[in-house]
Structures are given as structure tokens and as C-alpha cells.
Amino acid sequence: MSSPNYVGRRNKLAKALKEAGVDSILVSGVSNVRYLTGFTGDSTWLFLSKTDTILISDSRYTTQLKNECGELKVDIRDAKRPMSVAVADVVKKSKARNVGFESDHLTVAQHQNLSEKIETATLVPTSGLTERLREIKDSWELEQIKEAVRLAERGIAVVRSSLRPNQTERDVRYTLEAAMRSFGATGPGFEPIVGVGPTAALPHAHAGDLLVSDSPVLLVDWGAETRSGYRSDLTRVFFTGKITKQMETVYRTVLKAHQAAIAAIKPGVECRVVDGIARKIIADAGFDKYFGHGLGHGFGLDIHESVRMSPISEQVFETGMVVTVEPGIYLPGKFGVRIEDDILVTNDGHEVLSSVPREFDDAVVEFLA
Ligand code: ZN
Ligand code: ZN
Description:
By secondary structure, this protein is α+β, with helices and mostly antiparallel strands. It has 10 helices and 18 strands.
């Protein structure tokens, strides 16, 4: 498949509407609108019913809508006609009786405005209908994600080969972002985490002013975004100085948990079981207190998407899901290690999409003289 099948996606959503007990839906989540129509702007909602597919937008986007989804009907509102009024008009014309809205993507104020303006139908909350479709990537999406992984891999290769003791976390971040852009990424998939020593012990740290030479441990959590909007998400730790026994133990434990979890991924397996495999290895090594987050998550158009691997997840792996596996051990004030790769669930198991070396010896960086 060389182009995204928006019609097929909307047909699947239309089927899901029945099960959700509504005859139409108002899609307001930006990434959901993009997934269903290809439109890359914002402030634009999609109304979908058995008979109608209409994008409700404003005049800033007239040309862009024509270019990106010219086959779709659009209702362009002007500054005097608020979104709630435009939606009410569209709903009235459609003769819909029950309009689902995305409770995860509508503010309380927006909901109130809609309730006041829509007189011909009832608003019904829905959750995760499009997100559920987005869990399973089609072949075009997989091409995009693989490209995002390649861009990230090329970016980190530049960082690694140009790493210097006197670089700050920020310097490393900028080098990485510039490299990924130079290879064709529209930008990083999210703000890269670049953490030295104690910063690496914070699972969601921002790159700051610590020097690479301030600690032997450097953690980089990064990804690229493609022109089509798809992302990758990887983490590697580099040892840039004298490695302590504890650092090696922590790294090898995280790697063992990472490898065992990946090995267990296949269709039909519960996400929480895979999370538990990694968690047990880390606990058996005595570090259970230091691994607080879930094992991994889906990603695609957004960096965190449905499919969550955690002890409370009720999801089951299906062919076509793409998830991260990212166990970590964080010793406050000292250092942290996380190893993260991107995994595709295949018919008979899984495929690791990322190939940045991850063995202990691979993590050791020698500076050029
Ligand atoms: Zn990450
Ligand atoms: Zn992640």
C-alpha cells in the first residue's frame, strides 16, 4: 500500500459507531482528524454519519483543506460563526439523532457550548473509538514508522561519533535534533531527553547544563518525526567514563528485562503479562523500588498512543500493533538506565524495528583524542 486509506479508516469508524450506540460522531482530536482525513492543520473537526463526511473548519484553512483532502465536503465558518453554531448546523442538516463526541478531546466549555447550540440531537460521550483503530497500523503506517526509526538511528549515530566530554546536555540535544532534521525529519518526535548522571535518574528530565564529563552515565531518549507525522521512540545509555560495578549491574538487569519482555510479545498475549516479565527480573535483582513507570506504550501519529503495557493494562497484543519496550532503573541523585526499542507485533511473534546496538559493550563510548 503506497498511500493511506482514509476511506477504509472512516468505514471502520462508521462500523464502530453502531457498537457505541450513536448514529454519528464529532471527531475533535487533532491526530484523530488527521488519521481519518489526512488534514494536517488544527481547529478542524470531522462530522461523520452514515450519509455525511464533513470537515468543519475556518477560512485560515480553506486552501490547505482543498490540497490535503479535496474530496471531502467542508463547512468553512467565518469569525462571526463560532464552532458550536457551525456544528449545530451540520448536525441539523444530517438529521442525526445521537451525536457521539470524543470525551478525551473536548473541553468542558466546548461541550457546554455544543449542548446549548445543538437542538436536534443528543450529545453522547464516547472514548477511544478512533484510538482503538489507530492501535493497529496498516502497511503504509508501518513504512512511515520504519522511516521514523531510521531517521532516529542516523541521528544518534552522529551524536555518538561527535560526543565530547565538554558538551552540555543541551548541546547534545541540539546536535541530535539538527542531525535528524538534516536527514529529512520534520523535527524530533518529542523533546529529546538528554540526561547526565542524576538527570538520567529522572525518567522525564529536560536537557540542561550538566556536562557529559560530570558523570560516566549519559541517557538519551529520542525519536524523529517524519513528514507524514509518524514518530519513533528510542532510549540508549552511553557510558562515557569510569563504570562502577553498580552501573554495570543496573545496565545488565535492565537489558535482561528488556530482552525477556520483547521475547514474550506475540498476538494473544496480555500486555500486563509482558510488563510483569520485565518487572519480575528487575525486582529479583533488588531494584523493584526503582522502576515505577509502565513497560511501554503504543505510538504513531502521537508519541503516546493506545496500547499501554503496565501492571493494570487490560489490553491484549494483536498483529499490527507497534509498541515501545522500555524498562528502566532510576537511582535518585545518582544515575538511571533505560533501554527502549520499537516493536511490531507480527502474525507469529514480533519484529524489533530498531537496531541501535544495545549490548553492554556497545554502550561504552571512547572519545576521540
Ligand atoms: Zn522514549
Ligand atoms: Zn517511550
